[in-house]
Amino acid sequence: MMNKRLEKIVRETYETVPIYVRNREKLKINMEEIVKEEKWEDIPVLERNQIISEETSVMAPSAVSLLMANKLIFARTSGSTGKYMEIWWKKEDYNKSMLPLWYYRNKYYGILPQDKMCYFYTVHNVEEEEKSFLRKSELGFSKMNLTMERLSDIWHEMKEFQPKWLMLQPEIAMLLCKCMDRYGLARIESVQYIEFSGEILTDTIRQTVKEHFECRMANQYGANEFNSIAYECPYGNMHLMSENVYVEVLNENGECVAGEEGEVYVTSLTNSVMPLIRYRIGDRGKLEMGKKCLCKNHNPVFQLSSGRADDWIVLADGEKVMPNVLIRAFDCVNYRMDGVIKQFQAIQEDIGQFLVRLVVQEEDEYLEKEIEELFMESLEDERLRAAQYRFEYQEELFPDEKTGKLKWFKNIIIKEELYE
User: Residues 257-304: pLDDT tens digits?
Assistant: First the structure.
């Protein structure tokens, strides 16, 4: 059902933002009829491919002057689906999008913005990556070269920092647990809460982390295009952040379904600079409408059924390395070459042998050479720099027909469980 807020956003967007104006004219969309008769399903869905090729077409004309005056907040999607997209926000819009998450963090788990927190990042400074980064009450650690020895050092740094909570990807959490087992490290007493994000959270991971850290935990589902989309309450239900986003699950026929698995489409309710309407985020899930929860949150309950899970890089000595080291290399190339890479995929074909597929802004022999040189320079692990890389440039990288997702990294040698 289209409420007044959603109606206002749709009207303004289809009247002013170039990509939507073109869709309206090309498809002869009668917005008055759609709004009056609440035919939300008649509004076209938006694919990431449509945006990547011309990102400024998704920007509201009123925001262009703010962009030129450097008054917008810039972010780039994580690339976890193999595609980069630049996202622009007004600072006030960005803060507004985060308010619901902070409200529920405090309500459910007693977490406030000023509480000390530790997290892991892929890239902070592409010029000279630091092992850790301290900003106010937040202490971040680089995902680069996460050996057991380095994780032990991180554990001791966290213990000294005394964080109240941790924000972790499930795979990072499992590595920390493995490190604690190997070196006989006890839980950090100050940690009262752990928030998972970025990947599928399995029951095995949840139980393992609970046994090691003995604290409250919650799962948070979000994306850089929108910030938080759903958040887990103390009773185990992932409630939609309905104040920030409008979420639909569509079946193969493009019909909105409840209680059934389908493709997840999201509409932003807070970003006035780059409004995304019925945007396919690349995940699958299902919605439960009207579910009564003891936490008294009446927002629909969301369940993610498939997300951004990846293989591991396997080295000659049998050690497994997180593929994030490659994402950092792609990020470095984009940072230095103004976002030249639009899509990417890395495939480990054998020990020490990788295929890198890229979609770039323009095909140029000298440009490609510079991309490849920067990519190799940005690999900090000597073992990966010593490997052989075969680069292929394509017009488009297509997602898997079954999952609808482009898996950015694949290891076709071996697949093992993350935690043994």
Answer: 999 989 999 999 999 999 999 999 888 899 999 899 999 999 999 998
Backbone angles phi, psi at 265, to 5 degrees: -120, 135
Phi, psi dihedral angles at 351 (to 5 degrees): -60, 120
For every residue of 206-245, DSSP letters joined together read: HHHHHHHH-SEEEEEEEETTTEEEEEE-TTS-EEE-TTTE
* Residues 29, 42 contacting (CB under 8 angstroms): yes
Q: How far is CA 201 from CA 86, 207, 241, 303, 409, in A?
A: 27, 10, 19, 11, 19
* DSSP per residue, 166-199: EEE-HHHHHHHHHHHHHHTPPP-TT--EEEE-SS
**H or E, element range at 222:** strand 216-223
pLDDT in tens, 189-209: 999 999 999 877 878 789 889
Q: What angle do CA 165, 168, 173 make, to 5 degrees?
A: 105
Q: What is the pTM of this model?
A: 0.76
For residue 121, the one-letter residue type is: Y
Give the burial class of 237: count Cβ atoms within 10 A of its Cβ; 0-12 exposed, 13-18 middle, 19 or more buried: buried
